[in-house]
Amino acid sequence: QVQLVESGGGLVQSGGSLRLSCAVSGRTFRTTAMGWFRQPPGKEREFVVAISWQGGTPLYADSVKGRFTISRDNAKNTLYLQMNSLKLEDAAVYYCAARTDPYWSLSYRQGGRYDYWGQGTQVTVSS
C-alpha cells in the first residue's frame, strides 16, 4: 500500500500562488509515477501533471503549462505542486495520485489508471 496525504490548499487571489504538498509513505518502492489531478466544482476530475517516480521530464496539461511546476524532495518523500499566476478556473480540489505499473507514460492522463489517491486539498481562487 502507498499512502498519500495532500496539504497546502487554501484561498488565494487571482494571480497569486500556492504550493501544494503530497507526503508519500508506505510501499513506495512499488511506485512508478506520480500525478496531480483536480476536480473543479460540478465538473469531472481532470489531469494536471505527471512525473516518473525516478524523476525526469514532467508531463503537464496545456491549461497549466508555464504556470505550475511539479517537484520532489526525495529525502522527505514529498511531492510538490507550485502553482503560480492562479486563475479563477484553477479552483478545484487537488488530488495527488500514484501508479505502480511500468507503462504509466502511455496513459498518464487517465485517472482511472492510478492505484493510490490522497484525500484531496481544496484550492479556492477569488477575483
| Morphology | globular
* Percent of sequence in beta strands: over 45%
Low-confidence stretches: none
Using the CA coordinates, give the radius of gyration: 14 Å
Q: Tally of extended strands?
A: 11
How much helix, percentage-wise, in residues? under 10%
Structural class: mainly beta
Number of helical regions: 0
End-to-end Cα distance: 40 Å
Main sheet record: 7 strands, mixed
How much is the average pLDDT?
A: 95
Oligomer: single chain
| Element-by-element helix/strand order | EEEEEEEEEEE
How would you explain this protein's 3D organization?
With 127 residues, the chain is mainly β. Helices cover 0% and strands 50% of the residues. The strands form two sheets. Strands 2, 4, 5, 6, 9, 10 and 11 form a seven-stranded mixed beta sheet that branches. The model has no long low-confidence stretch (mean pLDDT 95).
Main attributes?
127 residues; mainly beta; 7-stranded mixed sheet; 4-stranded antiparallel sheet
Please give the structural blueprint.
Layout: E1 2-7, E2 10-13, E3 18-26, E4 33-39, E5 46-52, E6 59-60, E7 68-73, E8 78-83, E9 92-99, E10 116-117, E11 121-126
Parallel strand pairs: 2-11
Antiparallel strand pairs: 1-3, 3-8, 4-5, 4-9, 5-6, 7-8, 9-10, 9-11
In short:
By secondary structure, the protein is an all-beta fold. It has strands at 2-7, 10-13, 18-26, 33-39, 46-52, 59-60, 68-73, 78-83, 92-99, 116-117, 121-126.
